[in-house]
Structures are given as C-alpha cells and as structure tokens.
C-alpha cells in the first residue's frame, strides 16, 4: 500500500521528533553502497502485501548500485528537474501522476543484540525526497515524507541477530511534493545519512537546552529540559555547574552570575554535558537573548542587523548531499566577505551546518521545509497552507524542524516557510512554535497582515517602499490596509530576500545599506542568493559546463533562473560578492580631508582591537609611502577620527588607500585579511605638456599606425587590427533582460520569466526593438591633415531615425598617436543605452597575454556596483577579465582606465576638462556574439580579441527579480568624449 495521495505526513510508527544530538550511545552508519533500481512509474499499490523487492530473499543481481546518501538523478538514473514556482505535475492535490519515478533501495547489514544491549535500536533517516516506505526483513516499518527533515522508527522487534535486510522504496512525487515547491532542483533520493541509533535503557531521548543572558547584568540562565531516564546530571565545567535532578519536578533553570555572550561576532560556546547513568549528551550552548522590543530586534541588548544571504544547499556534483569540507569552505568564504547571517532558504540544512554556524558565528533564520508557491497561479485556491486537510502535515513540519534544531545558539528566528500564501495552517504552526520555544521570534514573509508573526518581512522591495515602511509613509504598506499596515510598521522590519544576485549584478547594494544605516527599524536582510545551482555536466565532446533548467530535457522548467548566486556553481566568488563585502564592511573609513579620516564601528559586539589599519600612498599607482596605525578603540556604534602621518606633496595622481585588516588569524581568515577598504584621491594627474609632432604621413602610415582609405585602422606596428567602431550594445544581463515580477514568456528558451509588461518592458526589449545590437555605420568623411586624420561616422539601426555621430580624431604628437573620440546622439531617442563606446579588433594571439592596467579593479564594476573597485595597478590574464556567469552576458567592464599594456600594445587614457577616463573591456567575443547564447560552449568560434573603450555603461539593477536600475545609474543618450594615446 503506498501513500502517494495521502496528505498525512507519514505513518503513526514514526517516533516523536527530537534533537539531533551528540551522544555516546551506539551508532551504526548504514551509508555506503546500496542495491538500487529505478521504475519510471509507480509500480502500483494494488498488490496486497509488500512489493517483491522488500522480501528478504529478493534477488538484486540485476540491480544497479548507488551510494547512500545520494540523488539518483545525479548517478545515471533519471535526471534532475528544475522549476521555480510551477509544479512539474498537474495541480491536482493531493494526487500525483502515475508516471512517478520510484527508486528501490536495498541493503544488508549486520546487527547483533550487543549493539545496544537491553535497549532499543532505532532506524534514522536524515533526509529522503520525497516519500519513503521502509521494510526491515520484509516487514513494513512505516512511511514518511518531509524531505529535509529527520525521521526515526524503532525497529528493535524486527531485527535478527546477524544479517538484516533493509529495503526503502522512494517515490519522487507524493502529496508532500505540494508542500515542497521551492525554487530549486527536484532531486529525489536518500540524500542524507541513514543510521542505526542505539537507545540505551534509561538513556536521554531528547534534550532542550537554552542559554539566556541578561544584557544589562551579564548574568546567565541555562535552561535544560531532558526527556528520558532519571536521574539527570548537568555539568558545565567552565561555569562550575554540576547539578543532579532525580525527577522532572526538580528541574529548574540554572543561574550563572556572569557568562560571556554568544553573538555572531563572538561565537562563544560552552560545553554542556547532560547525562544519565546510561547516556551522556554533549551540547555546545551559547548564551544570548533575542527579543523584539517595540520595532527593534535585539540580540544581547543591541540591534541585530542581518547582513545575510539566503543559502540553499547546492553542490554541482552532489546536489543537496552534505559534505563537511565544502560547507565549511562556504561559511568561511561568507565570513571573509563580511556576511554574518544566513537564512536557510528554504528548508532546514544538514544539522551539521548549524553546528558550524554556532562555531563560526552566524545569525541564522531557520526555515521550515514548506513552500506551496505554485498555488499562486490559481489564486491560492486549495492552498495546503490553509486547507484543514493539510493541517497535520504542516504542523508536523514545524514540529520536526524546531525539535531537530532547537539547541543552536546561532538560530535566532524561526521561519515558517517560504511563499505559501497565508492561511490557518501557517497560523497554527506559529502557535505551536510559540508554545514550544518562546525564546525566538517567528518570521514568515507571506503574513502580510502580521497576524501571527513577530517581524515585518518583505522581499525585493524598492528603496521607496522601505522608506515608506521605516520613515514617512508615502505609499500603502505592501498589499495590506491601514490597520494591518500600522501593525506591521510597529514591528522590526527585515528583508528576507533582496538584491537578486543573478548573473552580472546585483546593483544598488550600497543604496540598500544606506537605508539600513538610516532607519533603526530596518534590521538588514538576506541577499538572494548565496550560490548558483548549476549542475556539472559535459557536452558530447566532453566540454564541462554547468547545467540549468531545460538542460536535462525537462518538458516544464524555468531555465536559468536558478543561476542567481553571489558565488558561481563551481565556487568562484562573483564580483557581486566582492561588492557585498565592501558594502558590509564592519568598520567604515571615510576621508574627511587632508590627512584626517573618520572610522566608524558598525559591528554588533566587537570593538576595534582585533583590527589594524594599513595605509599606503601611491603616485601613478606606484607606492611612495605606507605604514600601519592602531585604530582608536571604538565600541559598536562609535566613531573616531584618525590622522595619517605627513607625507611629501605629490606632483602626479596620488591615491591614499586605507585598509582595516585582522591583526590575528581567525577561524575563517588569516592574519592580514582586509575587512574594509577606502580610498581618497589627494592629487590629480598632472596635465602632460603637449609635445610637438615627430613626423607625418608616410603613405598610409601615421606613426606606428596604418589606416585604410575610409579612415579605419588596419595595422598597429606588427599587429593586424581593426576599428574603431562606435558601439552601443552590451550582451544583456538577466537584469537587463527580465522582469521577475512581470508577466509574459520570452522567446529565449533559457529565459522563461517575464520580460515586463507592455508599459514597462525590460531594458533589453527596448534596446532590441530600437536595434542597438545592429547599428549600421556610414563613414561621413575622412580628412587627413599633415599629422592627423579625422573620421566622422554616423551609426543607426535599420528603419530608425535616431543614431549617434562619432568623430574619431587621430593626431601624431610627441607622446604617440592620440585618438580623441567624440560621440553625439541625434534624433528621437527614447530609451537608455547599454553602453557608449568604441570597439577595436585585435589579433587572437593577444588573448593569450596578460593584461596590465592602471585604473580601477581588480574586478569589473558598473555605476551601481562600484564600492569594491579601487584605483591601482592590476594585472590579469585576458581570459580572467570576464566572469563565467551561468549564461554568457556582459562582463568585464572596468571604468577609469589610466593605462593598459597588452603584449606590444600600450595605451594611455587622458582626462581633460569635461572628457573623462574611459573604461575598458577585453573579450574573445563581441557583445553581439555573446547575445542570446544559452551556455558558454555554444558561443561561436572566436574571431579575434576585442577591445572596448567605453565612455559609460548602464547600471545593473536587479530587475530579474526586483527593482530596475535607478535613474541616477541609468545611461541616457548623451554626448561623450574621451582621449587615449597609443604609444
Ligand atoms: C522569490 C522566492 O522566495 C525565492 O525562492 C526565489 O524564487 C526568488 O523569488 C527568485 O529567485 S519569490 C518571487 C515571486 C519574488
């Protein structure tokens, strides 16, 4: 009998949920190789008795082998499926189609009564997607759902001394799938560990331990609630606690005169042993109080600001299978980028992640495994989050989440789930949680009216909406009337998702942070999201790539929409992550003038003693002096002023750079790791006196350049070159191309999200309509003078009346060959431009060189994502200048170029008057070639190396799911000019 259409969470034989504890009771892992076979469809439940594979003598000789834990779709059986909001099966709750991939798993294990003599033996599953039915030695033990939750059965009475057979049938789809509609791969399988857990007689079945600390006095309370045998002893050697209770009536919270606080910045944990005569459980307890006081969220008495990310469990090879080293690496990388909070989007992670969060220091919002997003498309009709038929399933999820993870200091808020509309079952979940654990506030974004949650949460609000919630109200509070609006505005405000980090982006991180600074009610938020979900795959010819929706032939999928992380699928940090690190600097450094700088401590707990200040002055990018200073001792929230030592005056471009760095190594970074950086320009570049021409034309050669009759460059010294060609196009980013909250489907199969409605189409829709990707050029005139050449070009798209007129003025002088470019728009322009610049063609061989530049770097930057960029001398291989985003798109723009060396090519940019410095970009493909390509391996063969010099680029925004580029970062048609010298 299967339970596919059963909205109940599982069989009654499941044991009561409890914490994932470290105990000295015996444990036997059942991980390893199991026998496996996959049915394309549910084998059916019309046969009485257990399916044949469950029988003890089942012949598995024809079966495959599969590792447990794993997802079968990543081991050559079936395939992963990606959908965001949509269900990949009919909306026919609680039923699922018969074509239901079903994985039979079977293994033999040894067990002897001595495993836990006199006690019981439990069978534990830590995560199975989505419905599992379990047999031991042919007897049905039970069934369960709740993919990312733990389940235990007592199998003692079914075990025999010696060999035992465990059989598990896993259905990919079940009624529970309606509750698990998160924006991620559907990845069925036994993907977390399976084990036998010995339960000694008089052991500890469960422990609930909470550490509280009074922020005013520093006194602590340790509240330990054991369940199981008696008497119970609680020992905390560091605090001199050694307390024995002989019966439940004796349990009292233990008071401590002075205890250190646990915070994300000071993750101080105390070892707590709880024992009976049969079992000892070791907990690591942190003492902190989390409370909502009016519209403030406080931790240890001070405002808790979330500088966090939404973290899904995703690994390009293992999917959601836990790997300790990988996760530790992720968390350390977060801390190195000033990220101190995690929302466990959208389900409980492997329990070990929370232990690591306790140790490394993160404020965690722990989310239940619940999302019914697809019901959005049917106006929430029949939404399981509201329908009483699903009450037990919803409550079961809340209970299993809270019980499993209740002992973690890092968990500061419970989240009921994500995008499940609103309804009675959610309210009941909140009620149950409040009863069980009143030490943590409750979060759920979909509770727009604030009826059952403790904080007001929003996703992807505009800056105006935030200002309206936190400051003067200028617009209605999101989707609710005045009464609920007033209630919501009286609570702490958090952004559970913001700054959609898809592809190149997000823009405006600094703008969001400035609101966090401005409004005490705003308690920060969580960037969407930490990491791209690409799955490592290979083309037929063996080229590796990262697959996304549709790459496995799924008939219904959401394309590239899960490639939206700050970290690429292979773990490469994106420039967006660097930008976030800069915006979330724990101390800010602000130049006040001359040698004075203001230092502000924005941390929650820490002072400044663990940091030192390194400074350097560079003239034309070359260090002229440097030193190290002590930071003033600043408490959180305080600021002070420092003076740098005097240094001789500059005659050329001088920048002073300050870096606050760790004095000593920490658990997540070595000594010297820079946590904050700021720069100030103290002297501008000296104008270079014009030097007289050293020669004129020799045939078609002017200096080192050779031109054709139309004024185009054809040779530079030994290099065959081409251009310059005016250019307005950039390969659209997803933020250019999409409107996550918009409505209609795209023609591009990789992009199945809305591209905006007719009134507010996505930028790239406008750009394409106006033909910015296909300018046609007409040389208006070419004039040669004794020492120069002026080429005028008019560029317009087919059937349009607007365009740009470009004047390329070349002149040979004592410095080299000077090119002044001047671009002016004409005609009825009514859209922004992606970029405005010119393109040169260079020989492909130069792509193998290393580029050296003096300008901004080290990473790409754009008008609304430029906090991490600073001025200096940098070097990188040409191929490392761009970022391998999940889908080819604009990448690699570095504004503020002073000079560029690439093999034999040297160019210098000259700023003068209203003429700014251009940005540069080097790419093996043109912007046109990069457009509309689903994966890097589908790019056409490279035809050379392209150098773009841009006066400006459009901002990035985060419109793939959020606001568009703000007007102040938009590139509207305007006249631009810049000058470079080839020497
Ligand atoms: C929001 C989801 O909560 C999140 O899981 C993810 O899908 C994100 O969007 C987009 O990447 S929901 C959206 C309708 C705002």
Note down, in words, how this protein is organized.
- This protein has 983 residues and is mostly beta strands.
- The chain has five domains: 22-199, Jelly Rolls (Sandwich); 204-288, Sandwich (Immunoglobulin-like), CATH 2.60.40.10; 292-534 and 563-581, Alpha-Beta Barrel (TIM Barrel); 586-683, Immunoglobulins (Immunoglobulin-like, Sandwich); 697-845 and 879-894 and 910-982, Beta-galactosidase, Chain A, domain 5 (Distorted Sandwich).
- The chain contains eleven helices and 60 strands.
- The strands form 14 sheets. Strands 49-50-51-52-60-57-56-54-55 form a nine-stranded antiparallel β-sheet, with no helix packed on it.
- β36 and β37 form a beta hairpin.
- α1 runs parallel beside α2 (351-360) and α3 packs parallel to α4 (424-436).
- The longest helix is centred in the middle third of the chain and has 15 residues, at 391-405.
- 52% of the residues are buried.
> How many β-strand runs?
60
Number of domains: 5
- Distance between the terminal alpha carbons, to the nearest Å? 81 Å
Spatial order of the strands in the main sheet? 49-50-51-52-60-57-56-54-55
Strand content: 35-45%
Bound molecule kinds, no repeats: 1-methylethyl 1-thio-beta-D-galactopyranoside
- The chain-level structural class is mainly beta
CATH-wise, what's the superfamily of the largest domain?
Answer: Glycosidases
Low-pLDDT segments, ≥5 res: 742-753
Biggest sheet features: 9 strands, antiparallel
CATH topology of the largest domain: TIM Barrel
Specify the CATH class of the largest domain.
Alpha Beta
Tell me the Rg in angstroms.
31 Å
What is the overall pLDDT average? 95
DSSP helical segment count: 11
Describe the global form: globular
Helical proportion? 10-25%
CATH architecture label of the largest domain = Alpha-Beta Barrel
């Amino acid at each position: 009998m299967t339970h596919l259409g059963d909205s109940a969470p599982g069989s009654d034989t499941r044991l009561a949920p409890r914490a994932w504890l470290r105990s000295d009771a015996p444990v036997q892992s059942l991980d390893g190789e199991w026998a496996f076979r996959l049915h394309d469809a549910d084998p059916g439940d019309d046969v009485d008795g257990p399916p044949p594979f469950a029988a003890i003598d089942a012949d598995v000789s024809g079966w495959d082998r599969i590792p447990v834990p794993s997802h079968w779709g990543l081991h050559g059986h079936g395939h992963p499926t990606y959908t965001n909001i949509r269900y990949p099966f009919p909306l026919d709750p609680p039923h699922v189609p018969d074509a239901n991939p079903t994985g039979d798993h079977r293994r033999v294990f040894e067990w002897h009564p001595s495993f836990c003599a006199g006690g019981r033996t439990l069978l534990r599953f830590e995560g199975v997607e989505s419905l599992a039915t379990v047999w031991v030695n042919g007897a049905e033990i039970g069934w369960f759902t709740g993919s990312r939750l733990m389940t235990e059965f007592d199998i003692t009475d079914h075990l025999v001394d010696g060999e035992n057979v465990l059989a598990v049938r896993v259905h990919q789809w079940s009624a529970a799938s309606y509750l698990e509609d998160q924006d991620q791969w559907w990845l069925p399988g036994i993907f977390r560990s399976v084990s036998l857990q010995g339960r000694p007689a008089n052991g500890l079945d469960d422990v609930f331990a909470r550490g509280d600390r009074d922020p005013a006095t520093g006194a602590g309370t340790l509240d330990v609630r054991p369940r199981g045998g008696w008497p119970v002893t609680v020992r905390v050697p560091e605090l001199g606690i050694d307390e024995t209770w002989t019966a439940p009536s004796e349990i009292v919270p233990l008071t401590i005169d002075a205890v250190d606080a646990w915070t994300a910045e000071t993750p101080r944990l105390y070892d707590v042993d709880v024992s009976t005569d049969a079992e000892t459980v070791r907990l690591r307890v942190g003492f902190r109080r989390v409370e909502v006081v009016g519209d403030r969220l406080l931790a240890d008495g001070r405002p808790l600001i979330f500088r966090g990310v939404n973290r899904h469990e995703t690994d390009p090879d293992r999917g959601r299978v836990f790997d300790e080293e990988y996760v530790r690496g992720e968390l350390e990388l977060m801390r190195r980028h000033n990220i101190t909070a995690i929302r466990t989007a959208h389900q409980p992670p492997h329990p070990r992640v929370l232990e690591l969060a306790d140790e490394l220091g993160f404020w965690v919002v722990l989310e239940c495994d619940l999302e019914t997003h697809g019901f959005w498309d049917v106006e929430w009709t029949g939404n399981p989050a509201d329908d009483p038929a699903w009450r037990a399933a919803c409550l079961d999820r809340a209970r299993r989440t809270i019980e499993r993870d209740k002992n973690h200091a890092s968990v500061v808020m419970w989240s009921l789930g994500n995008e499940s509309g609103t309804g009675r079952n959610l309210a009941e979940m909140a009620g149950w949680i409040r009863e069980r654990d009143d030490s943590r506030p409750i979060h759920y974004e979909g509770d727009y009216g604030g009826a059952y949650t403790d904080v007001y949460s929003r996703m992807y609000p505009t800056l105006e909406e935030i200002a309206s919630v936190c400051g003067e109200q200028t617009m209605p509070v999101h989707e609710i009337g005045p009464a609920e609006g007033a209630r919501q505005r009286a609570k702490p405000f958090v952004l559970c998702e913001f700054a959609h980090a898809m592809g190149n982006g997000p823009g405006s991180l600094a703008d969001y942070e400035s609101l966090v600074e401005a409004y005490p009610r705003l308690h920060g938020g969580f960037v969407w999201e930490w990491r791209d979900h690409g799955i490592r795959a290979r083309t037929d010819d063996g080229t590796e790539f990262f697959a996304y929706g549709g790459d496995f032939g799924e008939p219904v999928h959401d394309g590239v929409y899960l490639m939206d992380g700050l970290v690429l699928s292979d773990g490469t940090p994106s420039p967006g992550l660097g930008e976030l690190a800069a915006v979330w600097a724990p101390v800010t450094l602000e130049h006040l003038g001359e040698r004075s700088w203001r230092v502000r401590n924005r941390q929650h707990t820490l002072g400044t003693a663990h940091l030192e200040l390194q400074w350097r002055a560079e003239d034309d990018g070359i260090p002229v002096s440097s030193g190290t200073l002590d930071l003033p001792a600043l408490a959180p929230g305080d600021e002070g002023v420092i003076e740098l030592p005097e240094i001789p005056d500059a005659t050329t471009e001088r920048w002073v750079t300050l870096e606050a760095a760790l004095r000593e190594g920490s658990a997540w970074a070595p000594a010297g790791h820079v946590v904050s950086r700021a720069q100030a320009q103290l002297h501008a570049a000296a104008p270079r006196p014009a030097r007289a021409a050293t020669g004129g034309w020799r045939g078609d050669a002017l200096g080192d350049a050779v031109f054709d009759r139309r004024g185009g460059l054809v040779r530079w010294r030994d290099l065959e070159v081409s251009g310059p060609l005016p250019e307005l196009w950039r390969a659209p980013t997803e933020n250019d191309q999409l409107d996550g909250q918009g409505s209609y489907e795209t023609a591009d199969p990789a992009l199945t999200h809305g591209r905006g409605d007719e009134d507010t189409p996505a930028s790239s829709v406008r750009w394409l309509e106006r033909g910015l990707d296909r300018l046609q050029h007409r040389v208006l005139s070419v004039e040669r003078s004794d020492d120069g050449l002026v080429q005028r070009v008019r560029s317009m798209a087919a059937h349009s009346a607007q365009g740009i007129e470009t004047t390329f003025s070349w002149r040979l002088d004592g410095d080299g060959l000077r090119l002044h470019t001047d671009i002016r728009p004409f005609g009825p322009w009514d859209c922004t431009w992606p970029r405005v610049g010119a393109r040169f063609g260079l020989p492909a061989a130069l792509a193998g060189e290393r580029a050296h530049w003096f300008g901004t770097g080290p990473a790409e930057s754009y008008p609304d994502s430029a906090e991490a960029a600073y001025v200096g001398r940098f070097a990188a291989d040409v191929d490392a200048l761009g970022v391998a985003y999940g889908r080819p798109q604009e990448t690699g723009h570095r504004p503020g170029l002073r000079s560029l060396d690439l093999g034999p090519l040297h160019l210098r940019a000259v700023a003068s008057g209203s003429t700014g410095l251009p940005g540069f970009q080097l790419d093996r493909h043109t912007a046109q070639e990069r457009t509309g390509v689903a994966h890097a391996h589908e790019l056409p063969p490279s035809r050379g190396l392209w150098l773009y010099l841009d006066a400006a680029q459009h901002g990035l925004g985060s419109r793939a799911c959020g606001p568009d580029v703000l007007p102040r970062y938009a590139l509207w048609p305007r006249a631009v000019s810049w000058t470079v010298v080839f020497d």
